[in-house]
Design brief:
heterodimer, A: 116 residues, mainly beta, 4-stranded antiparallel sheet, 48% strand, B: 114 residues, 5-stranded antiparallel sheet, 11 strands
Chain lengths: 116, 114
């Protein structure tokens, strides 16, 4: 059973370009979370999605960032007009159908975005 | 603001010793407390987790101690090994409006010296 897949693993963009990060959840998982990790810091929640629905985007910056999880295909985190401050590791996690009282999240290997 | 506070920032332990990492939280709605282990260049991997209805959970060399009244929980690694050298994150989540996003501590970089 393959784990959470993320690609690309490394992404280099120049300021002003767009970055697209992809996440394929574990088989059977319908919940996807995106987190951002700045150097030497913990992970910060960005957005929580189910198939075709954004459930919670309270951690997403108001501008330039968007996320989707279509009926078919991977979840995509999109960053438009990237700036140097967007340089970070972006992790995707997936979980099975939610159980009451918390759920186990499985993390992918991350995409390391570098903005030049 | 940081919802989960973690200490120490870094920890050096001799092989065979006990590693102890502490976390504290404020939100009493939190009801799930996992610990994650992260190696350089990798994603976090779940080590062990606890819910507030128990005060301790043990899995192999890893133990979580949970103090609900103090709103604190800690990870103990017994017989620490060089292979345990990694960054450890505590986290917390709560069941609210269907969201279960994790709030992470800032991490503890553990080095186990042979």
């Amino acid at each position: 059973n393959a784990g959470v897949m993320q690609n690309p693993r490394h992404l280099v963009r120049r300021r002003g370009q767009e970055a697209r990060l992809r996440c394929s959840p574990m088989k059977g998982h319908s919940h996807v979370y995106w987190y951002r990790q700045l150097p030497e810091e913990g992970l910060k929640f960005m957005v929580y999605l189910q198939k075709e629905n954004i459930i919670d985007e309270s951690g997403m910056p108001k501008e330039r960032f968007s996320a989707e999880f279509p009926k078919e295909g991977p979840s995509i985190l999109r960053i438009q007009q990237v700036v140097r401050g967007d340089s970070a590791a972006y992790f995707c996690a997936s979980s099975p159908r939610r159980l009451a009282g918390g759920n186990e999240q499985f993390f992918g290997p991350g995409t390391r975005l570098t903005v030049l | 603001q940081q919802q989960v506070k973690q200490s120490p920032q870094s920890l050096i332990v001799q092989k065979g010793g006990i590693s102890i990492i502490n976390c504290a939280y404020e939100n009493t709605a939190f009801d799930y407390f996992p610990w994650y282990q992260q190696f350089p260049g990798k994603g976090p991997a779940l080590l062990i987790a606890i819910r507030p209805d128990v005060s301790e959970k043990k899995e192999g060399r890893f133990t979580i101690s949970f103090n609900k009244s103090a709103k604190q929980f800690s990870l103990h690694i017994m017989d620490s090994q060089p292979g345990d050298s990694a960054t450890y994150f505590c986290a917390a989540s709560h069941d609210q409006t269907g969201a279960n996003n994790l709030f992470f501590g800032t991490g503890t970089r553990l080095t186990v010296i042979p």
